[in-house]
């Protein structure tokens, strides 16, 4: 295996590692340690931000395939993140409304 293909494989693994971590923190995948669905949106945002930073720092230094993968993963994660934040906000509004006393 030459250095370029090894680096491409390692970059792919790094991207997938952050993708998996982000999806776990969004509650889209089980936490393999606790075997439970857990949600920690601030941690999900950190994983997305780290991937975004790496992508920006590596601009013009990626192959077409790497750029396509990076862009696709980031788009997927950002859309899922916005969806989960909206769900959490809606759940909080419903919970808040249920706790308010009925107004005459």
Task: Explain what you see.
The chain is built from 3 helices and 2 strands. The chain has 104 residues and is mainly α. A hairpin with a 4-residue loop joins strand 1 (30-31) and strand 2 (36-37). The longest helix is centred in the C-terminal third of the chain and has 36 residues, at 64-99. The radius of gyration is 18 Å and the shape is elongated. The mean pLDDT is 91.
Helical residue percent band: over 70%
Q: Work out the oligomeric state of the chains in this entry.
A: single chain
Order of helices and strands: HEEHH
- Judging from the principal axes of the Cα atoms, what is the shape? elongated
Q: What's the story with the biggest beta sheet?
A: 2 strands, antiparallel
Total beta strand runs: 2
Distance between the termini: 75 Å
Structural category: mainly alpha
Rg calc: 18 Å
> What strand line-up does the widest sheet have?
1-2
SS field, number of helical segments: 3
What do the pLDDT scores average to?
91
Strand content: under 5%
* Low-pLDDT segments: none
């Amino acid at each position: 295996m030459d250095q370029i293909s090894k680096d491409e494989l390692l970059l792919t693994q790094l991207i997938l590692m952050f993708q998996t971590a982000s999806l776990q923190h969004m509650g889209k995948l089980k936490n393999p340690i606790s075997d439970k669905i857990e949600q920690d949106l601030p941690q999900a945002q950190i994983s997305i931000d780290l991937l975004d930073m790496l992508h920006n720092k590596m601009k013009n230094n990626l192959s077409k395939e790497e750029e396509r993968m990076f862009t696709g993963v980031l788009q997927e994660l950002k859309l899922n993140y916005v969806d989960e934040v909206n769900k959490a906000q809606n759940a909080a509004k419903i919970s808040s409304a249920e706790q308010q006393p009925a107004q005459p």
